[in-house]
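Figure S7 source data.
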Amino acid sequence: MAENLFISQTSDRKKIYDEIAPQIVALVEGEPDLVANLANITAALKEALGFFWVGFYIVKENQLVLSAFQGSIACTRIDFDKGVCGHCYTTRQMVVVPNVEEFPGHIACSSLSKSEIVLPIFDKNGEVAIVLDVDSDKLNDFSETDAEGLQMIVKIVEKLI
Ligand code: SME
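Tokens for the predicted methionine sulfoxide complex:
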């Protein structure tokens, strides 16, 4: 596995996503432990993109249960009909929230969180098995670039489950 991330000093997020995707593939290669890999992926995303909060919720016991993350403490369990993460789970679609205060039912793990993007991760049976949640302390911080870049990360995780 790779030990250091190579990240250009740039504010161009597309360039950063393109740089880190193959490095994340190398990072998880040969390691069968899912949570260990998810932990390293959150660390890589936080280091490369400086996200306020980035983490995974795993579908378990009819809820979304907090797994590996980087950032401040967060809600441990989310019901499927609650929050942005639950909305992503039930609709099976990526959810981009430019202003969390305008999303009915948003769960505020931190009052500093202002915008959010959540992506579904599908298992080999086509079921949502995990969601990837990224929060920003800036309003409207997630664009098509993030949607595409994070989708590359989702594809890497889907190969692990
Ligand atoms: N805001 C999320 C909850 C998870 S935290 O942001 C880490 C939601 O509404 O589902």
